[in-house]
Amino acid sequence: MVSETVPTSWLVYCRPGFESDALAELLHHAALQGIACEPSHGEGWVSLTRVDGEAVNDLHRQAAFKKLIFARQSLAALPALTLSRDDRLTAILEQVKASRWSFEEIWHETPDTNDGKALAGLIKALTKPLESMLKKRGALRRSAGARRLHIFWTDGDQVQLAMSFPGNRSDLINGIRRLRFPSRAPSRSTLKLEEAWHEFIPRDEWDVRLAPHMQAADLGAAPGGWTWQLVQRGMYVYAIDNGPMESQLMKTGQIDHLKEDGFTWEPPQRLDWLVCDIVDKPVRVLAMVERWLIRKWCKEAIFNLKLPMKKRWDEVTRCLTALEESLEKAGVHASVSCRHLYHDREEVTVHVRLRD
């Protein structure tokens, strides 16, 4: 049947425990386009399937990956398959043939769970035989528009085949950016800021937008995880926190540690960067950041918003809408992005760049 050969589902990976938030976000985008969908989910993933059996491509394309908050990966997916444990490859080959898909590479992925990781041995054993068969059938080939086939394994006999397209996907396996913790950094929170730079700033712009001799403020800095990243880029930092900073970090001579309240401190001049990972209510952090941006005390800002245990999607959209409305009312032009990063937990990371 035609419905079995077209991608009727929008499949998204997310952090385990955030399935309801990712699903709320997908349903929001489906509603914007007036498309009725049936939701489903498992640990670390969610999907919407069109109830009319039509292809999900337009919905997938219109809800651009770079604008999604809780999604680690965004795919157009075929109906899920149950495989025979005696012959796992035939059903996959038949569905690829029926879909008429062609692609340049294959990624085998699993949910970000212990059960998912346990499938690594099985996937490894099947990878080369499957690639060989798909090459012979002409599905896996060069010059296929940089399309990628994702084989999403939720169990040893449960898979879903999906397609991703250049410019509208994560180019990281499972959508996860794994960074090495620098041993000299004062805390593991340093990885949050490093990942945010990778996420929000194109790598070829780092030398200009994260340049040596820039000036930055780190609000709620102690013990210095985020300040350490700024110092590594050669910046001079106002570290604002009543708590102590790590002693070796202070020896760099690039830090002015001020034991003041990050919510009330004002910079002596316009800075290049504001960063903030203060643990407080989102509304309070947002009010402080809005003041900085409206008064143009910085050119760019990265800050975290701590989320409630329930209805996180509602809270995030409320916060972002309030921020954008405040900036617009003040006549401040800015681009605002938000992402639930891999190194985040109960928070999302927001990036704002002022447009002079």
From TrEMBL:
<dbReference type="InterPro" id="IPR048646">
    <property type="entry name" value="RlmM_THUMP-like"/>
</dbReference>
<feature type="binding site">
    <location>
        <position position="189"/>
    </location>
    <ligand>
        <name>S-adenosyl-L-methionine</name>
    </ligand>
</feature>
<dbReference type="GO" id="GO:0005737">
    <property type="term" value="C:cytoplasm"/>
</dbReference>
<keyword id="KW-0963">Cytoplasm</keyword>
<dbReference type="Pfam" id="PF18125">
    <property type="entry name" value="RlmM_FDX"/>
</dbReference>
<feature type="domain" description="Ribosomal RNA methyltransferase FtsJ">
    <location>
        <begin position="187"/>
        <end position="279"/>
    </location>
</feature>
<feature type="binding site">
    <location>
        <position position="261"/>
    </location>
    <ligand>
        <name>S-adenosyl-L-methionine</name>
    </ligand>
</feature>
<feature type="binding site">
    <location>
        <position position="277"/>
    </location>
    <ligand>
        <name>S-adenosyl-L-methionine</name>
    </ligand>
</feature>
<keyword id="KW-0489">Methyltransferase</keyword>
<feature type="active site" description="Proton acceptor">
    <location>
        <position position="306"/>
    </location>
</feature>
<dbReference type="GO" id="GO:0032259">
    <property type="term" value="P:methylation"/>
</dbReference>
<dbReference type="InterPro" id="IPR029063">
    <property type="entry name" value="SAM-dependent_MTases_sf"/>
</dbReference>
<dbReference type="GO" id="GO:0006364">
    <property type="term" value="P:rRNA processing"/>
</dbReference>
<dbReference type="InterPro" id="IPR011224">
    <property type="entry name" value="rRNA_MeTrfase_M"/>
</dbReference>
<comment type="subunit">
    <text>Monomer.</text>
</comment>
<dbReference type="InterPro" id="IPR040739">
    <property type="entry name" value="RlmM_FDX"/>
</dbReference>
<keyword id="KW-0698">rRNA processing</keyword>
<feature type="binding site">
    <location>
        <begin position="222"/>
        <end position="225"/>
    </location>
    <ligand>
        <name>S-adenosyl-L-methionine</name>
    </ligand>
</feature>
<comment type="similarity">
    <text>Belongs to the class I-like SAM-binding methyltransferase superfamily. RNA methyltransferase RlmE family. RlmM subfamily.</text>
</comment>
<feature type="domain" description="RlmM ferredoxin-like">
    <location>
        <begin position="9"/>
        <end position="75"/>
    </location>
</feature>
<dbReference type="Pfam" id="PF21239">
    <property type="entry name" value="RLMM_N"/>
</dbReference>
<comment type="function">
    <text>Catalyzes the 2'-O-methylation at nucleotide C2498 in 23S rRNA.</text>
</comment>
<keyword id="KW-0949">S-adenosyl-L-methionine</keyword>
<dbReference type="InterPro" id="IPR002877">
    <property type="entry name" value="RNA_MeTrfase_FtsJ_dom"/>
</dbReference>
<protein>
    <recommendedName>
        <fullName>Ribosomal RNA large subunit methyltransferase M</fullName>
        <ecNumber>2.1.1.186</ecNumber>
    </recommendedName>
</protein>
<dbReference type="GO" id="GO:0008757">
    <property type="term" value="F:S-adenosylmethionine-dependent methyltransferase activity"/>
</dbReference>
<keyword id="KW-0808">Transferase</keyword>
<feature type="binding site">
    <location>
        <position position="241"/>
    </location>
    <ligand>
        <name>S-adenosyl-L-methionine</name>
    </ligand>
</feature>
<feature type="domain" description="Ribosomal RNA large subunit methyltransferase M THUMP-like">
    <location>
        <begin position="87"/>
        <end position="164"/>
    </location>
</feature>
<dbReference type="Pfam" id="PF01728">
    <property type="entry name" value="FtsJ"/>
</dbReference>
